[in-house]
């Protein structure tokens, strides 16, 4: 199982991450599509080969082809949007916020899966990429769609743990190569 492989690869000092992987993915109460779409989108957002190698096959096995593609699409579009909107937020010159973005984002309107699931995946990727404007926007859409706070929080936890696992494994690989 992918989680067991990831946990085994983590060093002893990251015991909390091992436990958290089991809690947020292995014992998640999210429906399979929400869970594995979030996991896949987050794994892609980390850019970690080690994490993707372990989590992608299980995500693919637990998602419909449409959901698999949509989760990858969420990671892709938010990779662009998070940079753009985070930059707007950080700039003190508000003139840029009045300008039309002119960036294509069609997948957000027609993701090929339930809108709430796609929004949840976009929210989780935005947590990894640190875009407050996108987090607020996607959280508001989720809540208006009737998604409860516990589900939103579950996606935050998945994002946090997957990102921490990726950073730890990638750092250990660099240290081992020194």
UniProtKB/TrEMBL annotation:
<feature type="active site" description="Cysteine sulfenic acid (-SOH) intermediate">
    <location>
        <position position="134"/>
    </location>
</feature>
<keyword id="KW-0575">Peroxidase</keyword>
<comment type="subunit">
    <text>Homotrimer.</text>
</comment>
<comment type="similarity">
    <text>Belongs to the AhpD family.</text>
</comment>
<keyword id="KW-0560">Oxidoreductase</keyword>
<protein>
    <recommendedName>
        <fullName>Alkyl hydroperoxide reductase AhpD</fullName>
        <ecNumber>1.11.1.28</ecNumber>
    </recommendedName>
</protein>
<keyword id="KW-0676">Redox-active center</keyword>
<feature type="active site" description="Proton donor">
    <location>
        <position position="131"/>
    </location>
</feature>
<dbReference type="InterPro" id="IPR003779">
    <property type="entry name" value="CMD-like"/>
</dbReference>
<keyword id="KW-1015">Disulfide bond</keyword>
<dbReference type="Pfam" id="PF02627">
    <property type="entry name" value="CMD"/>
</dbReference>
<dbReference type="InterPro" id="IPR004675">
    <property type="entry name" value="AhpD_core"/>
</dbReference>
<dbReference type="InterPro" id="IPR029032">
    <property type="entry name" value="AhpD-like"/>
</dbReference>
<dbReference type="InterPro" id="IPR004674">
    <property type="entry name" value="AhpD"/>
</dbReference>
<feature type="disulfide bond">
    <location>
        <begin position="131"/>
        <end position="134"/>
    </location>
</feature>
<comment type="function">
    <text>Antioxidant protein with alkyl hydroperoxidase activity. Required for the reduction of the AhpC active site cysteine residues and for the regeneration of the AhpC enzyme activity.</text>
</comment>
<keyword id="KW-0049">Antioxidant</keyword>
<feature type="domain" description="Carboxymuconolactone decarboxylase-like">
    <location>
        <begin position="97"/>
        <end position="175"/>
    </location>
</feature>
């Amino acid at each position: 199982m992918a989680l067991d492989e990831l946990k085994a690869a983590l060093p002893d000092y990251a015991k909390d991450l091992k436990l958290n992987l089991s809690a947020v993915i292995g014992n998640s109460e999210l429906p399979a599509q929400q869970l594995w779409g979030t996991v896949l989108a987050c794994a892609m957002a980390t850019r970690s080969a080690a994490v993707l190698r372990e989590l992608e096959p299980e995500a693919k096995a637990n998602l419909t082809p449409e959901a698999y593609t949509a989760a990858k699409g969420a990671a892709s579009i938010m990779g662009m949007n998070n940079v753009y909107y985070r930059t707007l937020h950080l700039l003190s010159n508000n003139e840029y916020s009045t300008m039309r973005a002119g960036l294509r984002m069609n997948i957000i309107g027609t993701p090929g899966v339930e809108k709430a699931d796609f929004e949840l995946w976009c929210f989780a990727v935005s947590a990894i990429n640190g875009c407050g404007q996108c987090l607020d926007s996607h959280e508001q859409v989720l809540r208006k769609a009737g998604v409860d706070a516990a589900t939103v929080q579950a996606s935050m936890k998945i994002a946090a743990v997957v990102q921490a696992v990726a950073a730890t494994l990638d750092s250990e690989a660099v240290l081992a190569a020194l």
